[in-house]
Amino acid sequence: MTQSRSVRPFYRPMRPHRRDEPHRTATPLELFFDLCFVVAVAQAAGNLHHAVSEDQIGHALAGYLMVFFAIWWSWMNFTWFASAYDTDDDLYRITTLVQIAGALIIAAGVPSAFTDADFRVITYGYVVMRLAAVVQWSRAAIGDPAHRAAASRYAIGVTVVQLGWLLRLLLPAEWGMAAFVLLVLADLAVPAVAERPGMTPWHPAHITERYGLFTLIVLGEAVGAVSLAIQDGLDAGEHDLWSLAAAGAVIVFALWWLYFDRPNKAPDRQPYSLIWGYGHYLIFAAVAAAGAGLSVSVDYERHLAHISERTAGYAVAVPVAVFLLTVWVLHVRRQQHGAVVVAFPVVALLALLAPLGPAPVYAVAALLVALVALTVVMRSRDVAPGATVAEPA
Question: Is the domain of 154 the same as that of 262?
Fold first, then answer.
């Protein structure tokens, strides 16, 4: 039964939404949650940009992937929980705002994680977010007897893993990476184990919308990063950056087009739903990294980067290739056929070869334009003459 939103009490029992509930869309609280995460994403991408420009490639990549995991995993767990159990009472809102505060703590800890490999602040923010999620899952276990076993497993599993994250801070530095990998695997295992008694009632269309909205937010952050880099160059009197700005815009526009080219829907069965949900880590991280890479290219053109043109090119080509391959696995192979299915991995490979030649950013932009053009042509052929084209929901 759809819950009435006309009067919002301080507390209402946490009943599940129906998986087939009509008109299930993102709420203002969910949108606010996403926007607050932009701060953390921008910090991660900005620090990646500066570290790569300073030729600290290995350090930058490891730090970025670790920081982005904390950002993405916290966002993802809230998103799937809210899809099933958003009661919109005051207690739910307060608990969610605590989770947002954890995201802001994570953002505050990003610079020290990159510069000094000090993950204490990020860990504190992460634990704040995840323990607030334990409160939510505990409420779900009380209010939803049909899924009590799954909700209880979530609450217990998340609590145990958070103790592990706190204990990791006490370990010697040389054990830090191994402990990080083990704890990531433990975190990833919690949903797989918790959902085994029966999947919680998340809404496939709602989840799809939420992932699309976060993709838009990360794309917007990439646009903003490139815009700021170009602005700095123009303020310094360097007016020969317009063509690079155009190529960067084309790349971001193409990434948007390729992700949203056709309607996508989260699979509603395990293990496919987990693969789809987890795989988006690579999409989100790649888009933000592409924005950072474009900023690195601006630094190179301004003679501020301590790297070669090839390295600057790979800062763009690698995340673009990762994006293409992940979209191909999660979306294209499931829904399309023919030349498009072949083209995605081929263009990803060609993008990785682009830095071996001149003007790699322009070459990557041209490759993406060609791929977009191919998707448009193939989609037009798939629409039979006289067929009714579905309007967007």
Answer: no
Structural domains counted in the chain: 2
Using one digit for the tens of pLDDT, what is the confidence trace for 52-73?
999 898 888 988 999 999 999 9
- Whether a cis peptide bond, with omega within 30° of 0, leads into 271 is yes
In 3D, which of 301, 299, 297, 304 has the Cα closest to residue 355?
297
Residue type, 243: S
pLDDT of residue 234: 76
- Rounded to 5 degrees, φ, ψ at 392 are -65, 145
- Asked if 208 and 248 sit in the same domain, the reply is yes
Contacts of 350 (CB under 8 A, 6+ apart): 367
* Helices vs. strands in the chain: H and E counts, helices first: 13, 0
Q: 160 and 102 share a domain?
A: yes
Rounded percentage of the chain residues whose pLDDT exceeds 90: 58
Share of the chain above pLDDT 70, in %: 94
20 lies in some domain: no
**Enclosing domain of residue 312:** 204-382
Q: Which two tokens stand for residue 300?
A: 């190179």
Residue 340 half-sphere exposure toward CB, CA atoms < 13 A: 24
